[in-house]
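To assess whether ligand presence alters the predicted conformation, the chain was also submitted together with pyridoxal-5'-phosphate. Input:
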Amino acid sequence: MSELPLLAKELDQADELAPLRDRFVLGTASDDAGVYLDGNSLGALPAHVPDRVADVVRRQWGELRIRSWEESGWWTAPERIGDRIAPLVGAAPGQIVVGDSTSVNVFKALVAAVRMADAGRDEILVDATTFPTDGYIAESAARLTGRTLRAVTPAEVPAALGHRTAAVLLNHVDYRTGRLHDLPALTAAVHACGALAVWDLCHSAGALPVGLDEHGVDLAVGCTYKYLNGGPGAPAYLYVRRELQDRFDSPLPGWNSHAEPFGMSPSYAPAAGAVRGRVGTPDILSLLALEAALDVWDGVSVDAVRAKSLALTDFFLRCVDEYTEPGRVECVTPGPHTERGSQIALRCPDAGEVMKRLIARGVVGDFRHPDILRFGFTPLYVSFRDAERAARILGEELA
Ligand SMILES: Cc1ncc(COP(=O)(O)O)c(C=O)c1O
């Protein structure tokens, strides 16, 4: 008999974040409940969100109607919610605006970064291992701005930087392998060569400390439907470091980022501050669902979340090691904590089929083409018993 189920129970009992699980709509931590390890793709539903959304729809929209732009704070929601996200990514208020998708914000951030760089700098570097959308958009941004695009791995960035580099677009955590890149060191290297650093935080915000202000990141983007639990298609966010805001020249200067949006002027004059990152009318229902979802972070420290995330992924790997025959899977997530995000990616040739069987047995992770099993560990609601049970069922399905 393995000692791991008992150990998992003890770890759950000692876990200070364990009570947060009750803030979400999930099964109990008992053995019969399903195990949700896909919060790195779509975060779970915080329990209070449906009632808040119902109020937004019934009262704010249904009764107050147009008055809600003022009276329910709809107009200022993008900046207000940006300020709620700010402490989770180490940013002071006034630098984050919420709206549009991550893809759209990558476009705004990268084109604006290139426009801020010296005119003679004619090359953009993009993370060769990036989530594909960033690469597609970087290619278009390069064409639009008349720069060339070069794809290099994050490890190759320091050697690739030079007097030609205008901007560098990097992923903080690799969506496939779960590798955490060295944001402080890479940002410093980009700055040392006089270029701007743009970071995609989709797989790190809400899972580990980011330290945007501390490390002098220039621009950053991220989604809110993964570790921030904002819901399917929840709007993304854009961070523009305060000192750069006056120089932020948006490639999508819509009326919502105008200094006087209701002046209806035929000519554009950008607003000051984070508002400059807005485009058109905000997606109010999604935005306010996200605002409600962010309440689960009240009183939660990102450092505590990070500590639990590492303990969970360490424990899961230990369980996989014990329950799976040697050599059946290869872990592609780095072992050192300094290089690990909040997911474990295991390679095996029949990963697609294995994941289907896991999901049928209530263990929900996901499959990434061609051979990766991905398990996301969201410390707000994943327990050590979840990790043990998932690894045990995985071992059975791999046998
Ligand atoms: C790293 C990364 N960037 C961008 C995206 C896509 O963002 P969106 O669909 O919000 O444009 C994802 C989606 O999973 C992602 O993981």
